[in-house]
Amino acid sequence: MAKPALARLSPFNVTSLALGLAFLYLPIVVLVIYSFNASRLVTVWGGWSLRWYFEFFNDAAMLSAAAMSLRVGAVSATAATILGTFAAVALTRADNFRGRTLFSGMLYAPLVMPEVITGLSLLLLFVAVDAERGFWTVTIAHTTLTMCFVAVVVQSRLGSLDRSLEEAAMDLGCDPLRAFVKVTLPLILPSIAAGWMLAFTLSLDDLVIASFTTGPGSTTLPIRIYSEVRLGVKPEVNAICTLIIGLLAVVIIAASLASKLSSRQGESAAPL
After folding, report:
1. Best CA proximity match to 236, nearest among 89, 27, 61
2. What is the mean pLDDT of the chain?
3. b/e string for 206-215 if b means 16 or more Cβ within 10 A?
4. What is the CATH code for 60-268?
5. pTM (2 decimals)?
6. Which helix (H) or strand (E) element contains residue 93?
7. Contact 124/173 with Cβ under 8 angstroms?
8. Which tens digits make up the pLDDT trace of 41-79?
9. Are 194 and 255 in contact (CB under 8 A)?
10. In terms of pLDDT, which residue wins out, 97 or 226?
11. C-alpha angle with apex 80: 222 to 256, nearest 5 degrees?
């Protein structure tokens, strides 16, 4: 049994893994290091400093864009989690309803559809209904984008859940709704939390769809950063990106821990 393990740790495999990780994360490491650069020139190292972090927190336009992104992310992630959970329950528990295949295909379409097409379609919709573009149009667009991701996460958890637990609760006098709320919902709650965090991360990171659906006074942080970069990279942008990386890392770690907790709960729940 030891030989296969040693084979997996061959010099070629270690080198390939190191090159792959360097290709993915070395630019991010360089960005984080240069966010502490005291020099005004991005490519010239001038010593360690927190200057550009203070510049960011004194930049009213950047702070306003960051607050807008956080509000849009929180609201759209909550709406996407509710709708995605309902969709996952419908696909898991109602196996043979008419139109299931069409509903499933339409639900998962944003997973593979280019964001340019999604953003343009939503823009044409908002123009057709004469909706003023702003906070709510961006929120609706992000809800449309992220709902399918939540549905996939929750549906995978529901599919592995033992339904005999719910059936036992109904045998003891619970109606289906109460059995779902009292038995199933606590078991899938970690996956719902993971879906919310994933939706929040996707919303916070989105640029393409937000650029189609935003309006005056509702600029998100990625759009603001993109507009700054087009005029030349400032060291302040490095500091902002470092803060975003840290926030997304915390959210991803929390989502991963929630998914592991959900799996452990499913394994420890013995059928009645």
Report:
1. 61
2. 82
3. bebbbbbbbe
4. 1.10.3720.10
5. 0.79
6. helix 60-93
7. no
8. 777 777 888 888 888 888 888 888 889 999 999 999 999
9. yes
10. 226
11. 75
